[in-house]
Task: structure prediction
Amino acid sequence: MGMLDGRTALVTGAGRGIGRGIAMALAAEGAKVLVNDLGAKLDGEGKDASPADVVVKEIQKIGGTAAANYGSVADWDQAHAMVEQAVTLWGRIDILVNVAGILRDRMIFNMTKEEWQAVLAVHLDGTFFCSRAASVHMREQKYGRIISMSSVSALGAPGQPNYGAAKAGIIGLMYSTANGMAKYGVTANSIMPSGATRMIDSTPRGRAFFEQHGKWPSEAAVGTATDPDNVAPLACFLASEQAGHINGQVFHSYGYGYSLMVEPVPLRRIEADRRLSPSEVAALFPKTVGTYFLPPPGTTFGKSLEARPKQEWKDVGNGVRFWQAPWDPPAEFASKP
Result:
C-alpha cells in the first residue's frame, strides 16, 4: 500500500531533474502520473519527446501507471489540455506539481525584454495556467493538492531578475490559491528546491566543477546530498491526505533536510492621528522603524543553518536532527494544525 494509492497526478517538467524525481516518487507511492515535458533546452527552445517517454517507461518498469504529455505550460490551451488528458485517462486529477522551468540569466542592466518575458511565461504563467485548469476539477471533487516549485532565487539572486521575480510570484500565487481553495478541500504549498540539475551544470560554478572533476555536478550528485531526487519525499508528503492541514506554506529543500520558511510578518510600525509630513517621517525613522535593517535576503541561508549553535539542535533519532529558531514562534501569529 502506498500513501497515494488511487490518486492521479500531473507533474510538469517531469522529464528530467527535480520533476523526474517527483514523478517517480509519486508513482512509487501508488499515484497514476501524467509526465509532462516539452523536451526543450534550458533556454526554452526546441522540443523533444524522449525525456517524457523515458520517465513513463521507468515508471512502468517499477509497476506504476503513467502516460506522457509533450505540451508547453506557457500555452493556455496546452496547459488546459494536459489537465484534461489526466482527467480523461483516470477520471480525476488529485495532484498537480508545477516544476517546468527555463533559464535566461542576465543582470538587470543587460536583460532584454524577450529574456524577461520568456522566463515569466514558463514559470509564472505556466504555474497559473496549470493551476487554474486543475482547480476547476479539484473544486468540483472537493479535493486537491497543488505543489509549486519556487526557488531561493526569489530571495535575491543577482543574475536572475527574471527567474527570481517569477519564483517570488509563484509564492504570491500560492498564497492566493491556498486562501481561495481551502474551503474546497484543496491545499496549495510551495517548495524552494535545491539539487544539482542541468540548470546548475549551465552556470559558471557548474562549468568550474566540470573542469576540476571531469564530470558535471548533476552526474556527481546521484545518491548524495545534492541529488535533486531529495526533493521528492517532501513533495510526496504534501501531495498526500496526511498533509491536508498544511496549506499556504513555503518549504526549503536542501541536502537531506527540509526547512519551513516564515512568511512576511509585521516587525515595526509608526502610526499617527494625522498624515505625517515627509520631514516628520525622516525624523521619526531613525529611532522607530529604521533602528536597523536586515540586508536583502540571499540564496545561501540553507548552508548557514548548519553553523547554528549546537544547543539549538535536537536529536530526534534514527540519524535525524531538528533545528528550531530561538525566535520561533511569534505567538501572536502562530496557529495549530
Q: What stands out?
A: The chain is about 35% helix and 15% strand.
